[in-house]
Amino acid sequence: MLSLLVSLVACAGPPDEGVAVPIVEVAPAGAAGPSTIALAFPPPAGAERVAAEGFGASLRDLPVRAADVRVHTYDGRVVGHDGRVIDLPLVPGDLQQCADSILRVRAEWLRAHGEAVSFHATSGTPLPWSRFEAGEKVVLDGNDLRWTTGPKATWDQYLAVVFTWAGTASLAERETRTDDHPDPGDLLVDPGFPGHAVLLLDVARSADATYVLVGEGYMPAQDFHVEIGPEAGWWRWSDGVALPHWNLPASTLRTWR
């Protein structure tokens, strides 16, 4: 069994061939104000959004902050991602990293639609919101988790537990399955310790190309954001997506179970 402790490093720095994202202290001049994914990122010229429903369609309505708002870490530092910040809160501490940001977006959608919210720890232990809400909690027992009584958790307290014990490995193995073509709401997951994961916020197609809009968190925990691509903010799908700091080939494409 994988040690649960390694899940604490859910989305560390990039592989050797990647380029680290530096922390910087400057910000660009002003730009457009608050908007939504759909309004802020029309498809590239000649392309049209694909049909979407449910979770995938809902991502187009995510609110984004003004374009001159920089991506910040949980402790207030500005980082060098070229991103449009999505208006999604962080839980306290260095917890809401790459896989965790995706899990939060998914959890918020499930909860808003009256669906059961449950994810898995790296060990495979299910972590249902209903048990935390009812006054149970998990504690580390050797190399595993066990349930015990505890105070009723708030929503953010529950999410913090999920972010502590889940990560790219559990996201790939437990929550998703492989897919062969990108659709809104799909993920690119490179599981590992470290690993990385991004969420496909939208997909558009033209006669000869497919484009994806990439939603990303990172380590240290930081604002979930649209990672700006070279095609009007989108990335051209070419057997995957090669971000400046992480290569995510088509083999990493996954969809929710």
Nutshell version of this structure?
By secondary structure, the chain is of the alpha+beta class. Helix content is 19%, strand content 26%.
Q: Compute the number of structural domains.
A: 1
How many strands in all? 17
Q: Structural class from helices and strands?
A: alpha+beta
Helix content bin = 10-25%
Largest sheet: 9 strands, antiparallel
Assign an overall shape. Answer: globular
Radius of gyration, in Å, reads: 18 Å
Proportion of strand residues: 25-35%
| Intertermini distance | 22 Å
Mean pLDDT: 90
Number of helices: 6
Low-confidence stretches: 1-9, 12-31
What is the helix/strand order? EHEHEEHEEHEEHHEEEEEEEEE
Structure description:
This protein has helices at 37-40, 54-58, 98-112, 129-133, 155-165, 168-175, and strands spanning 35-36, 48-49, 63-64, 83-85, 118-120, 126-128, 136-141, 144-149, 176-178, 187-190, 196-205, 210-216, 225-227, 235-236, 240-242, 247-249, 253-256. It is an alpha+beta fold. The chain has one domain (4-256). The longest helix is centred in the middle third of the chain and has 15 residues, at 98-112. Residues 1-9 and 12-31 have low confidence and may be disordered.
